[in-house]
Design brief:
Oligomer: single chain
Bound molecules: coenzyme A
Number of helices: 7
Strand content: 15-25%
Number of domains: 1
CATH class: Alpha Beta
Order of helices and strands: EHHHEEHHEHEHEE
Distance between the termini: 28 Å
Strand order of the largest sheet: 1-2-3-4-5-7-6
CATH topology: Aminopeptidase
Number of strands: 7
Structural class: alpha+beta
Helix content: 25-40%
Length: 200
Amino acid sequence: MSSIRAYRASDRDQVYDICIRTARAGDDATGVYSRDDLMPDLYAAPYCVLEPELAFVLDDGGTAVGYIIATADTRKFVERWRDEWLPAFAERHPLTSELTSAEKNHIRRGVHPEQMLIPEVDDYPAHLHIDLLPQARGRGHGRALLQTLRSALAASGVLGLHLSMDPANRSARAFYDRLGFHPLPSSRVDAPVLGIATSD
Ligand SMILES: CC(C)(COP(=O)(O)OP(=O)(O)OC[C@H]1O[C@@H](n2cnc3c(N)ncnc32)[C@H](O)[C@@H]1OP(=O)(O)O)[C@@H](O)C(=O)NCCC(=O)NCCS
């Protein structure tokens, strides 16, 4: 029996594992980059560390098998990323010449968090990441996690939520479309940016 609960520091390793195993357009990215912790260090851990009150996990028998993580205010998050996350990130992931160009681009995103500031950020200040392990998918948990996050954001007065995604992840795009996300004006076919209000 799975249930949604608040993230706890003891979920950290499982969150890293879920992130790696879903980081290749929804598929397993283990071994794709020279360090398996690159994707979680960019797309999972900073949210759990900087804004744990907006991190929720899907718990199956005491183990996290999925999560939704977010920031309520992308502008503030970028500042805190620079001050509190970037120093250790840059040390763990130096930009060295032998890295692939894809890997360098990911690391640059970590070093330049202002890349998160989409033109619509003031109307859609929150942004999210959601990932479930394969065995937890297709059973309504993604919808329930998203509703949990939207309610938490709405309760703190945040009106709009957005996400950026890999265009190759067609399955996730079908999920977001089904849940009512719409492309924002800055969205491009090769770099989709979707938005939704936090309450209906
Ligand atoms: C994308 C993801 C979060 C969706 O969560 P999920 O639990 O599988 O989705 P749900 O079962 O809650 O589906 C919710 C609705 O979306 C629809 N949906 C989900 N995936 C779909 C797909 N691939 N095609 C069409 N519809 C889909 C469902 O039919 C359902 O509709 P309904 O509630 O009206 O019946 C999950 O599959 C996942 O983690 N995938 C791998 C990681 C990933 O891609 N993360 C997103 C990165 S941008």
